[in-house]
Amino acid sequence: MDRIAGVTAVAMSPTFWAFLTTPIVDVAFPRRTYALGMVLAAAASLASALWFFSPQRLGLFTALVLIAEFSVVLRTAR
């Protein structure tokens, strides 16, 4: 249970700290490029995370889910 809670906490953390990075991304990229990049990053990260899903690779799975969630949060924040 503690490993599941840890993965969940890490995966949901971008929703709390995305407000710090959203203004930086808003200034740096055009809207269409930004949207396409975040959608592709989220899809690739989530697909990779599901591919590597196993108890032996929990750290890699957690990192990929974190990247996917961060991409989704940044995409929806704009």
Total of helices: 4
User: What's the SSE pattern?
Assistant: HHHH
Net shape: flat
Major pleated sheet: none
Instruction: Name the average pLDDT.
Output: 80
SS strand fraction: under 5%
Radius of gyration from the alpha-carbon trace, in angstroms: 13 Å
SS elements, strand count: 0
Number of domains: 1
Cα end-to-end separation: 34 Å
Secondary-structure class:
mainly alpha
Describe what this molecule looks like in 3D.
The chain is 86% helix and 0% strand. The chain has four helices and no strands. The N and C termini lie far apart (34 Å). With 78 residues, the protein is mostly helical.
Topology overview:
Elements: H1 2-12, H2 14-28, H3 31-51, H4 58-77
Helix pairs in contact: 1-4, 2-4, 3-4
Features:
mainly alpha, 78 residues
Short description:
By secondary structure, this protein is mainly alpha-helical. The chain has 4 helices and no strands.
